[in-house]
Input
Amino acid sequence: MELSGGGLPLPLGGMGIRRSLPITRAIAYEEVLTKAVEVAEKNKKILSKMLIQRDLIRVDAQMLDKYLDMYANEDSVSMSEVQLKAIDKLFEIGYEHGFYDEKISVEDFLVPQEYNDYRFA
Output
């Protein structure tokens, strides 16, 4: 039986930003992290070669390519509706099993992309 019951992907990881940070700083951090994933996605071959040449990894080239394909791809640059639903499903399962006191919606915790546009318009 499938865990999600709806063909949703299993989120492998994510990045979080402390909610006590000022929103403008959180947005700036998110932009830097997003840019880093975009750079990695667009430059996988160069990145892979550099990591291997500098002996900065513990896997062979083939396994590194597999990891980079999993973690630095178009789907890891920004969250799609399907990915957001998958995270909500994990929160739902956690709530049902007593890990959370209340239901959590990922939408309530996303950094609003439009904030800077409205604030500095």
About this structure: The helical segments are 23-42, 44-53, 61-71, 81-96, 115-119. The mean pLDDT is 84. The chain has two domains: 20-77, 79-121. The longest helix spans residues 23-42.
